[in-house]
């Protein structure tokens, strides 16, 4: 059982409940937490949704942010896919084959020449003197970088003209940049760029196609610089240092500032063009990294060596706040409160007896308060046990039995209170279909299901009181081919009786369900398991899986895990370390459960890049 604070959220979606003639906004605000619980529900019956036209495209606090920053944030997913490309991971680990790096450098020369020409075109188009000076400086920096590349190629004895013809991925980007700089921009007629004023817009469009490359390389340089620490010799130290340097970071920022400056007079439609160019450039950059010919074995994506006839990939995931933005208990509580009868309403004959709305709200508040206090006490008692000097799964398992008993008692209190009586099945399904999932979650599961080259199963293990809510939330995204393991409401003529078929209530229930599913997998294939979760209740499953990925920032999960010797490693750092250790072997054999290591991820995009690649 998990409880979270419910609070009105004045934007869509809206749901019309079966016993109400009014439309209510069904949304919730998530507050910082160290455990998962509902504090007190707040009815939204008096709240009117904002009209869609009143909602800003960007949050108020972002209105002062320039177009460059907005685009970088919006297309952060693409930067994650670039970072997790086999080429970048191999480079970061120092295991990249030298011939591959030579090929990359040679291709990058073509890239840089195209950049220098585009800067020159942008400089000619702008009528702003300061912008001209800034663009000129950036072009000079590129020319200096070209000289450095030429020197390296000569040192290696490579004839750029004879041995390094453009590969298709490089050509796609250079052609795109050349076309943009010459005015061939989708959605813009050449005739509209005839006047000096209009041609200034072309300078903005050109920088829109170049800025993501600069920012992406600055980002990758900084991310990779961490892997130089403690390394006596890293074969690609100079490359990493050059892009992590203050000079290159300043150039990237200068390019963004110029894009922001040149975009100020643009209309909304013209800013949309900048956004499209930015996104296209990001996708072409990913293609450029993926096109580099790799000779050595790589550990990612996890599905790379997958052969459906020989392998099985099983993805396990928690639901509440791992897949969702809001906890399901908050949604069910809100439905119960909003649809409960008021004191001035008469109960219909044969209708399940329910508490009045005001009484229901007070009861939820009491249950929430008691849960919060007892949960915190339970966690505190767990931490009174002597801290483990090394990973101790058995002691952690034994300690979590107390938390499991607590969760079951809490669920019993909920069912005995009657707060879950009388919820309409159709209301629950409608709420599920409108439930907001974490960005990238739906796309990840869809990609697995639609990939015919994967022999993969998806299992959702959840404390959620109502499995129908989970199934509805995924079916709205066309994801029906997954297995839901959760508790279930008992219904009488489509109305909940208040009783629950209890299947998964605790950390022990979860790990038992996990183990049973894994045991039922036939042994004729190599099985690789991935578990994704975010709370203490997921700890045992996370540790037993071949790869356990922690999503989110639960402090209680980390505190309890650390107390029993669990190590938390950023996923990308873990991948780079595995590449160092396992280069040249089957990638699936690098990952084994009960190692005591869990990997932390900041987004579903990161998980997608790790498991499936771009």
Describe the structure in your own words.
With 614 residues, the protein is an alpha/beta fold. It is 51% helix and 10% strand. The protein has 22 helices and 12 strands. It has helices at residues 67-74, 76-83, 86-93, 98-125, 129-155, 160-163, 168-181, 196-225, 237-244, 246-263, 268-290, 328-339, 357-382, 393-417, 425-433, 441-450, 467-475, 507-520, 539-544, 555-563, 571-582, 604-611; strands spanning 14-16, 23-25, 311-317, 421-424, 456-461, 483-485, 488-492, 495-501, 526-533, 547-551, 567-570, 597-601. The strands form 3 sheets. It has a 7-stranded parallel sheet, with helices on both faces. Strands 4-8-7 form a 3-stranded antiparallel sheet. The protein has a two-stranded antiparallel sheet with strand order 1-2. Helix 21 (571-582) links the parallel strand 11 (567-570) and strand 12 (597-601). The radius of gyration is 28 Å and the shape is globular. The relative contact order is 0.13. Mean pLDDT is 85; it is low at 4-62.
């Amino acid at each position: 059982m998990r409880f979270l604070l419910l609070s009105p959220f004045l934007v869509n979606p809206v749901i019309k409940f079966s016993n109400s003639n009014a439309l209510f906004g069904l949304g919730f605000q998530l507050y910082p937490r160290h455990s998962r619980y509902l504090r007190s529900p707040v009815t939204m019956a008096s709240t009117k949704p904002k009209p869609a036209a009143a909602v800003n495209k960007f949050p108020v606090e972002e209105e002062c942010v320039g177009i460059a920053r907005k685009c970088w944030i919006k297309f952060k997913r693409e930067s994650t896919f670039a970072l997790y490309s086999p080429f970048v991971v191999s480079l970061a680990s120092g295991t990249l084959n030298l011939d591959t790096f030579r090929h990359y450098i040679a291709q990058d020369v073509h890239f840089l020449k195209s950049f220098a020409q585009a800067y020159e075109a942008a400089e000619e188009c702008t009528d702003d003197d300061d912008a001209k000076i800034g663009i000129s400086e950036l072009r000079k920096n590129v020319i200096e970088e070209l000289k450095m590349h030429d020197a390296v190629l000569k040192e290696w004895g490579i004839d750029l003209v004879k041995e390094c013809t453009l590969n298709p991925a490089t050509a796609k980007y250079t052609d795109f940049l050349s076309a943009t700089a010459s005015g061939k921009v989708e959605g813009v007629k050449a005739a509209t760029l005839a006047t000096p004023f209009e041609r200034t817009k072309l300078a903005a469009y050109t920088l829109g196609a170049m800025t993501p490359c600069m920012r992406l390389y600055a980002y990758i340089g900084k991310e990779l610089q961490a892997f130089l620490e403690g390394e006596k010799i890293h074969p690609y130290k100079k490359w990493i240092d050059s892009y992590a340097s203050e000079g290159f970071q300043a150039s990237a920022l200068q390019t963004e500032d110029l894009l922001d400056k040149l975009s100020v007079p643009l209309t909304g439609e013209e800013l949309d063009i900048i956004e499209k160019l930015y996104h296209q450039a990001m996708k072409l950059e990913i293609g450029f990294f993926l096109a580099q010919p790799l000779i050595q074995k790589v550990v990612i994506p996890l599905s790379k060596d997958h052969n459906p006839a020989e392998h099985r990939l099983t993805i396990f995931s928690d639901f509440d706040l791992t897949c969702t933005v809001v906890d399901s208990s908050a949604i069910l509580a809100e439905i119960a409160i909003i649809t409960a009868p008021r004191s001035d309403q008469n109960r219909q004959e044969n209708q399940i007896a329910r508490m009045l709305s005001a009484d229901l709200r007070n009861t939820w508040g009491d249950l929430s308060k008691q849960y919060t206090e007892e949960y915190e006490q339970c966690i505190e008692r767990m931490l009174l046990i002597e801290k483990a000097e090394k990973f101790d799964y058995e002691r952690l398992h034994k300690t979590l039995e107390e938390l499991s008993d607590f969760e079951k008692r809490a669920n019993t209190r909920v069912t005995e209170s009657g707060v879950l009586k009388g919820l309409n099945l159709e209301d629950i399904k409608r709420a599920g279909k409108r439930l907001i999932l974490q960005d990238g979650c739906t796309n990840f599961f869809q990609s697995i299901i639609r990939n015919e080259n994967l022999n993969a199963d998806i299992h959702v293990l959840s404390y959620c009181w109502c499995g129908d809510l989970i199934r509805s939330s995924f079916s709205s995204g066309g994801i029906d081919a997954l297995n839901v393991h959760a508790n279930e409401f008992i219904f009488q003529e489509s109305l909940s009786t208040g009783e629950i078929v209890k299947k998964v209530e605790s950390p022990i229930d979860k790990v038992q369900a996990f183990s049973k599913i894994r045991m039922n997998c036939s042994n004729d294939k190599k099985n690789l398991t991935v578990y994704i979760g975010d709370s203490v209740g997921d700890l045992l499953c996370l540790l037993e899986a071949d790869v356990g990925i922690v999503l989110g920032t639960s402090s209680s999960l980390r505190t309890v895990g650390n107390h029993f010797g669990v190590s938390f490693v950023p996923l990308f750092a873990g991948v780079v370390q595995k590449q160092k250790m396992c280069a040249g072997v089957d990638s699936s054999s690098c990952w084994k459960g009960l190692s005591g290591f869990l990997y932390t991820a900041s987004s579903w995009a990161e998980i997608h890049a790790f498991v499936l690649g771009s």
